[in-house]
Specification:
The protein contains four helices and ten strands; from the N terminus they run αββββαβββααβββ. With about 210 residues, it is an alpha+beta fold. The strands form two sheets. Strands 1, 2, 5, 6, 9 and 10 form a six-stranded antiparallel β-sheet that branches. A four-stranded antiparallel β-sheet has the order 3-4-8-7, covered by helices on one side.
């Protein structure tokens, strides 16, 4: 038996400045399943995500690198070793694309072509800026620690980074120039998935995953 598709209540919140940056040019426009565009969910997806895939091109060669990250006030924050090829390249002012995905479920259909997934995703475009103020760097990194380890208290559960350690770390801010946000939810939608059992043994169902965390 097919899983009934869920219905999402209309989001009546006033569009945030982040949502207003959605699909502003051709590079961020959603073409396939445009009805799944959810600009008002972009901020919540970025706040709930755990891994950001950063894409850039160097000497004609594309690269995609996963990062732990932080999101705050319309910007994504990345960090790593200053010698990192990715950070050295990105901090030079090139355009980057950053993708965050929350995989919420796997959709099994009665037909091969209708198998799918439930997800929430955001693709962000922007140019990285170096964060050089030491107090700001420290605040960003401490906020990021709390993001991944809620409840841990600085100087109680762990020691603060030293000045030497802080200077040995690169922190980049990527203000969101534009973005696209997309979501699928509900059950199987194949042509036979809502039909009663027909004796074939073919089934449709949803495997819930851990992505739905808000």
């Amino acid at each position: 038996m097919a899983t009934n598709e869920t219905t999402t209540a209309p989001d009546t919140r006033e569009a945030s400045p982040l949502a207003q940056r959605s699909e502003t040019t051709a590079r961020s426009r959603i073409r396939r399943h445009a009805e799944r565009s959810v600009p008002t969910e972009a901020q919540r997806i970025l706040e709930a995500g755990r891994v950001a895939h950063v894409a850039y091109a160097l000497d004609g060669q594309p690269h995609v690198i996963p990062f732990l990250y932080d999101y705050a006030d319309g910007a994504i924050y990345l960090h790593g070793a200053p010698a990192s090829r990715t950070l050295k390249s990105v901090r030079a002012g090139m355009q980057v694309a950053i993708e965050v995905l929350l995989l919420d479920g796997l959709i099994a259909s009665r037909d091969a072509e209708s198998h799918s997934a439930n997800y929430r995703s955001v693709v962000v475009y922007g140019v990285a800026q170096r964060v050089t103020n030491m107090a700001e760097k420290r605040a960003i990194l401490e906020r990021m620690t709390l993001r991944y380890f809620p409840g841990r208290t600085l100087e109680v559960d762990y020691a603060a980074a030293t000045e030497k350690q802080m200077r040995a770390l690169e922190v980049l801010r990527v203000p969101v120039e534009e973005l696209s946000a997309k979501m699928r939810e509900g059950g199987a939608r194949g042509p036979r998935d809502a039909d009663p059992p027909d004796g074939s043994g073919h089934t449709a169902f949803v495997v819930q995953l851990g992505g739905r965390d808000m």
